[in-house]
Amino acid sequence: MNAIKNRISSSIVWIFVGAYTLTIIGPMLYLLLSSFKNSQQLYSQPLAPPHPLMASNYTTAVHAGNLFSGIRNSFIVTTGVVLLSLAISLPAAYGIARIPSRLSRLLERGFAVGLLIPTFSILIPAFLLAAKSGFLGTQKFYIVFMPATALSFSIVVLVQFMRAIPMQLDEAATIDGASHWKIFTRIILPLSKAGLAVVAVFNFVTYWNEYLFSLVLIGVGKGRTVQVALPILQGDRVTDYGLVAAGAVVATLPILIVFIIFRRRMQGAMLSGAVKG
Amino acid sequence: MTTEGVGRTSADAGVPRRRARTKRAAPTRSVLLFTGPALLWFVAFLILPLIAIFWLSTQSWDGILDTPHYIGLHNFRKLVGDTEFHAAVKNTAIQLAVELAIIIPAGFCFGYFLSLRRRGWGALTTIFFIPILISASARAVIFTGVFTSSGLLNGLLTKLGLISLTQPWLANSHTALYTVVAVDLWAAVGFNAVMTAGRLSGVSTELREAALIDGASQWQTMWRVYWPLVLPFTGVLVILHFLWVLIQSSQNVLLLTQGGPGHSSVTLGYLLYNKAFVTSALGYSQAIGVVLFGVGAIGVAVIFRLTKSRE
Questions:
Q1: Considering chain A, what is the average pLDDT of its residues?
Q2: Which partner from A69, B80, B107, B120 sits 20 to 30 angstroms from A88, CA to CA?
Q3: Does A68 lie at the interface with B, CB-CB under 8 angstroms?
Q4: pTM beyond 0.80, yes or no
């Protein structure tokens, strides 16, 4: 009886899982197919495979949307934010994970609560700060400001990695007269490479994909990122979906490459962040 | 406080007490040295901007070149009578209700399914994880293609002989809000499933085997044994998605429908953006920010209470 029930419920679940899987893949596949079609093909046969295959969408999209410049800007801005976030959160994680005290416990809780602050909520204060300090429309302000929104996650994850290192290492080093700074740079940092990679990759994806703050703080001028350039291209070429689709593929490729290389680490990072939050 | 401490010190043996105190002061200073920069960034660029929202909400500030001046609660009084705000409240409530009603069971069931590690679970996990990696801008391009008049969805409906259902999904005031819901769920269900599966993989499989031997079906095992077990974790995921819908998904509205047609897909988060950057009412937009803050805080507290571990 139960065997039959299990089989039925399992096939129902399979149907739902299958439907959702198709829902994920379908639109992405449609985007990819469309990126090789001209408008006429798209309109007359939206579901048919592209024929003839139009690679010209890609060259036109990259040219019309100035996408390579956008990718370069995204790369500069994202790398800046990732490096600055690491420079700030690595020592902070050391202070919290390796120097037990009431303050470090308090700070750990404080940064964990920070996970609950959605970035979007401070968009207008950030905009006003940029405008009043005269840095509106620059990548500099974005690079300096945005690590604040990455700190909570970075610190929470790094603390977990650093806690896993045996305390005896620090104790032995302290007996040998090593300072905290020496323990941090010589012992803990080299042993936290895995955690560092997780945080760096996660933040890279987050800030490569970030849209609203790039739009408001950096703007649509020369310094615009690829995520800002894409909707502009879409607005300029409303009727040419194949072209816009090609642009979207180009803007997404760097992240897919990163994902393929770091898949397991990224899933682990998300999980540890969510568990703590 | 201080006198009490002094009194106790003189009552106790003074010397070891003092040594204990200097020893305790040292870690505090080291912690401050290491966490200083993080604290500075956290306070200056996250906490103070968050507090600034409350100050801004009491200002009349129409555009960056205008001089702000204090108007008390006038912005909030204006909100109460603003029909666009009413539409935004209603739409946000619908969006929250629909998305949470789908994501909680779907995320858990799919996560449980993945955790059974049936054939193909590795590939499924990867597929479920991919949408969250796609940026809001690219998602908007993808779903413009899906929902546009000559797009994927209408193409499929035509193929299935359901041509009467075809419509311009983004431009129809009855469906525009649901296109935003669809885009949110598209990514979030898979993400929640992968996270839940990760959490379940930390739970021993003996529980399941025992339950199955006792004659429970897979379905019963899932809901009666595993659901209560991972409920606090599910609560965290629900909180994250709740905040996402309330605040962050406004970028999907901006990119897909811009609140239209009419006010049919205006949400609170999008209205905040719109008031600040389209109508340049900076103070007014932050009154909405305060409302969002309040709703967010209450919602988080309620979800936390409901999903707290029962031990």
A1: 90
A2: A69
A3: no
A4: yes
